[in-house]
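Hey,

The postdoc asked me to send both predictions to you directly instead of through the lab channel. I've kept everything plain text so nothing gets mangled by the mail client. Protein one:
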Amino acid sequence: MKFMMLLHSNPEAFASQTPEQMQAAMEFFDELYRETTASGELVDTAGLAHPSQVRTVRHRQGTTVATDGPFAESKEVMASYAIYDLESSERAMDLANRVAVATGGTVEVWPVMDFGGTDV
């Protein structure tokens, strides 16, 4: 089963971290990357650019409009994504819990669909 995990975090909270907190976060993600690469579970992952670089495109009443910024009015923004190929939804929840605890952020867990429906 493939799962996409979306990490949402508050850029202000991120910017206010101490160097030690930043180092701990980097070490956590490095270890998670090594673990899930070695196990063959990691498909893809990347951090995302600052929200000021985001463009949102909408089609409304016959017109397409592009606006600056993420689509949601929120202090939290999507910070990164990861796609894993896992044995179970329980494993997905375990990884998401570890990321949420390590970052203090919010992690959405989305089953990835194939053309025939949910890839489960």
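Protein two:
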Amino acid sequence: MFDRVLVPLDESALAEQALPHAVAVARLTGALVTLVRVLEPPTSAGVEQPTDPVEWQLALDGAHSYLARVQRSLADVGVIAAVEVVEGEPATSILQHMHDTNTDLLALTTHGRGGMLGHSLGSVASKVLLRTRINVLLVRSLHAARGVILALPQLPSYATVLVPLDGSLRAEAAVSVAVRLCDNTAAVLLVPHVIEDGKPIGRKIPDDVELGIRSTYRQARCDAAQAYLASLTKELGNGTRSVDVNVVSDEDTLTAIDRLTSERAIDLTVMTAHGETGSSRWPYGSVALHTIVYGGTTLLVIQDRDRQELQQIRTERAARERQGHG
């Protein structure tokens, strides 16, 4: 499932909230965990400033000591971790490290030492998430801000895991991962298929006729969804696994997921980066991207496309273009 897990740390309690979740996944899959600490040279107005050699060496020693302590805490719960101290701009350094080490799961929190300033994502998390092309385990710092602190050796206890499906094989790529996590924690696997309310037909016909057409279309979609989930239930059921599948009707998929998250007290959401459309133009589809930015649960996004298939975003292409001549 996952072979190499990267956990960026900045020596803050918020960033460390990713550790118990990363350990839970690593112990399940036997993945190699790497802890990385990025030290950023001092800057002023965006310009790198001279660094006192002694102060910089002290910072390096402190970073190594910190990672060694965290490394020991992981060893105490049965996970052998590598450590790495990197110098540079945090987001760029993390992305480069993932590329160089062929990381296939990034585990991080929404915020780090900068704290929560009313933004759903901190600056480093935002930059990394919007450019990464791999699986992502995102832990919400808002839980720690509300006093729900998870620290090793304590591991997360997922009571209900949400896997929203749209009927596509691409979306189903998240199911196998969620099933293994549920089997390991005896969690309930909640699998909704959202049927969005029909949109107006767009041409002038009597209201009662339009209502009838939309109602018939919606019922046909519900029947198809019920049949799809019934076949999926047979595949998922093993006699001991608790699976809850249902067709959900709402104004749109995003609203339905948000409502289910609150009503069912979801602990973990697992979804693929793309759904039925599966566009390679962006690292995430609209539902995954919205959930990353505005969701309220711990989130595991399974990248359903090979990183080589995904196109570079415009800013990445622009940064690689030659800036003039001469």
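Summary for protein two, as requested: The chain has two domains: 1-156, 158-326.

Thanks,
C.
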